[in-house]
Amino acid sequence: MNSSGEHPAGRARPSFLGIYLNDHLAGAGGGVELFRRAARAHRDDALGPPLEALAKEVAADRESLRALMAALGVPAKRTRMAAGWVAEKAGRLKLNGRLLSRSPLSDVLELEAMRLGVEGKAACWRSLRAVARTDPRIESSHIEELIHRAERQISTLETIRGNRAAQVFTQGARAGSRPA
User: Fold this and answer.
1) From CA 43, how far away is CA 38, in angstroms rounded?
2) Which residue, of 1, 58, 113, 171, is most buried by count of CB atoms within 10 Å of its CB?
């Protein structure tokens, strides 16, 4: 690195904000995949419609993040986005009591992962709210809308997760079954 803060090849060192936003973009990519997969898995039951609506919102939120990054001059790093995709795929490999079929426990674990992802997204929007106080390239009212939507998504996910956990764990207890 030279005295101007650029790498020898002439590329500027990524800013902390750029790294942070790219990490969130990677997570958003994995999150969109998870929400879509969960919605597909439940397309024929009561969880399908709310999960489909959430999947659409999460995809729109990812596009909002991309737009904010563009407004801030932060390029999307494809390697980080690919890492998010790989992480989502790896998350499918978990011990859930069944080897070849989808387990009801998968629903609970995936809903928890989705909620954690939305919690992280809400934290990102709050961080950007702080940046918006001094950076006119970020529209504060849009950030506030994104924060409120994330909070509503968290509430919806917690309701779905709590109901599904009660179903899964009480059914298992009544049946006297223990996962392998």
Assistant:
1) 9
2) 58
Name residues whose C-beta falls within 8 Å of residue 38's C-beta, 6 or more positions apart in sequence: 47, 51, 55, 107, 110, 111, 114
Q: What is the pLDDT of residue 100?
A: 54
CA distance 75 to 49: 34
Confidence of residue 33 (pLDDT cuts 50, 70, 90): very high
Residue 144 has pLDDT above 90, yes or no: yes
CA proximity to 77, closest of 135, 15, 128, 120: 15
Q: Give Cα 89 to chain centroid, integer Å.
A: 13
Copy the structure tokens of residue 5.
């803060």
CB 38 within 8 A of CB 114: yes
* pLDDT tens digits along 87-120: 555 455 554 544 456 678 889 999 999 999 999 9
Residue 75's Cβ-count burial label (10 Å; 0-12, 13-18, 19+) is exposed
Among 60, 35, 63, smallest CA distance to 50 is for 35
